[in-house]
């Protein structure tokens, strides 16, 4: 594999993690002033614990709900290696109200979930049901507008046109993504589920658009991280980000 592509992927992943983590830590700091720590955190569809284990290392009580037993086994190994405990629950994001106590979570992560579930609104309403009043929900989803841009720049103009004409943000039957969202669609979905939107940020705004040769410069990853963090706060640039990140709260 081209080493520049590997470097690009790692830099984009680091930028994504940093931008989302910055928003999560700010929310955790807010909640620490309002609730008694440790906080109860649920990661719906949290897989192998990429977000859950770092949160557990901060001292919070973390539960991961995922449908894959293999992912949950990997999560438990990762948690053991980190010296923390994470509660692993096998199940679907659309059935959270049947798996976890009502209004029990201070923060629920719903990352890369609403694109894939059969009924996103039902899934988010289940998320709301397990979230405490004044608790927060973090939603990360794939951006339809970015997909148009990426397909067009790759020379797939027919796919770009199909994306523009699709209500589900897909270019056709061969598209591996079940659905994508515009910023308006995602915030509308979050509000319809019963949450208040407090922040919308773009994630991976520029990194996925850069040519591979840029990453031959060893300074690029650090510079890209700084640029991505600064760009994420600009609403105009967020509209072309590969992913959209919404921080929302359940009303009191």
Structural features, described:
This protein has helices at 3-34, 52-57, 69-82, 96-99, 120-130, 144-153, 157-165, 183-192, 220-231, 235-238, and strands spanning 40-44, 61-66, 87-90, 105-111, 131-142, 196-203, 243-249. By secondary structure, it is of the alpha/beta class. Helix 6 (144-153) packs antiparallel against helix 7 (157-165). 42% of the residues are buried. Residues 1-7 have low confidence and may be disordered.
Quaternary: single chain
Strand count: 7
Poorly predicted spans: 1-7
**Secondary-structure element order, as H and E?**
HEHEHEHEHEHHHEHHE
Content-based structural category: alpha/beta
Give a quick account of the main beta sheet: strands, pairing sense, barrel closure.
7 strands, mixed
User: Going across the major beta sheet, what is the strand order?
Assistant: 3-2-1-4-5-7-6
Tell me the distance between the termini: 51 Å
Shape: globular
Strand content: 15-25%
